[in-house]
Specification:
Radius of gyration: 19 Å
Shape: globular
Structural class: alpha/beta
Low-confidence stretches: 1-42
Distance between the termini: 48 Å
Strand content: 5-15%
Strand order of the largest sheet: 2-3-1-4-10
Order of helices and strands: HEHEHHHEHEHEEEEHEHEHH
Bound molecules: adenosine-5'-diphosphate
Helix content: 40-55%
Number of strands: 10
Largest sheet: 5 strands, parallel
Length: about 270
């Protein structure tokens, strides 16, 4: 592992350290967690989204990235772009296992480098770090401001993964599952209507090959074993915000903005648009 760190650290650290920490936006309403006394509040967001498969990390990270003007970088998307080129990688992903750190750091470095050349700063990472080792390496090279941990009951996670569909043309995600989970074993009930595609996407929907029930169960098992400790890692650093999703996007999005202290920012931005 030490060799791995040495292998990646020079490349990864130079990318992250050289990133320009530009002013977030022209709005007067400042969102939280950016006011670093050393930079006069001008530092961009460096956030991480954690959560089990199917919880909605991509959905909420992507909405926040639009709101905050920082890139949403999902390592799962980076991995999926490589699958047609690598049968070995395809096999690992379709068994619900984690890809090697070496591959993940290479993909992430390339993505950050491309973003840097486009003038990007800050990030919302989704699906990374997924192991303690990845979190430690990330900490060696940059400072994470905030970690959002999204949570949902397991039966709902499974239903959501099995209902997930992607438009093969525009890449947008939808969900055909109508979830109506009854209160059970102290867990609150939960209902989420399907998130159906517009007409132009309806005939182009595909299902991720790793969204089958046995593979989803294996991904959940791997999450518990390898990624739940990462929650604790950031909890100990005082950076973790836990968010139990209360339902679908209409209920959850405003509440998430509220706990992130971004509701006012959102209103001012919408009014200015
Ligand atoms: P999920 O819905 O399970 O959160 P993702 O889209 O984030 O899925 O990732 C899909 C797959 O890509 C994972 O099951 C894993 O094989 C691989 N992967 C993504 N991010 C990482 C990472 N940080 N470390 C190792 N493997 C990863």
């Amino acid at each position: 592992m030490a060799a791995l760190t040495r292998l990646f650290k020079p490349q990864f650290s130079s990318l992250l350290f050289n990133r320009s920490l530009s002013t977030l936006s022209q709005t007067n309403s400042s969102p939280p967690h950016t006011d670093d006394p050393n930079d006069g509040g001008s530092r961009s967001f460096q956030w991480v989204f954690l959560g089990s498969p199917g919880v909605g990390k991509g959905t909420y990270a992507s909405r926040l990235s639009t709101l905050l003007g920082v890139p949403h970088i999902a390592t799962g998307d980076l991995v999926r772009q490589e699958l047609p080129l690598s049968p070995q990688l395809d096999e690992v992903v379709n068994q619900g296992k984690l890809v090697s750190d070496e591959i993940i750091f290479n993909l992430l470095s390339k993505r950050l480098e491309a973003g840097e050349s486009r003038g990007e700063s800050g990030f919302i990472l989704d699906g990374f770090p997924r192991t303690i080792r990845q979190a430690e390496i990330l900490d060696e090279v940059t400072e994470i401001d905030l970690v959002v941990n999204l949570k949902l009951r397991e039966d709902v996670l499974i239903e959501k993964c099995l209902g997930r569909r992607i438009c093969s043309e525009c890449g947008k995600g939808f969900n055909v599952a109508a979830i109506d989970a009854k209160p059970e074993n102290g867990l609150p009930g939960m209902s989420m209507p399907p998130l159906l595609p517009p007409q132009q996407c309806a005939s182009k929907l595909i299902t991720r090959a790793d969204d089958t029930e046995p593979v989803v169960r294996e991904r959940l098992r791997v999450y518990k074993e390898k990624s739940e400790p990462v929650e604790d890692y950031y909890r100990k650093q005082g950076k973790l915000i836990e968010f139990d999703l209360p339902g679908g996007i209409p209920e959850s999005w405003p509440k998430l903005l509220e706990i992130l202290n971004l509701d006012d920012y959102h209103h001012k931005k919408s009014a200015a648009a």
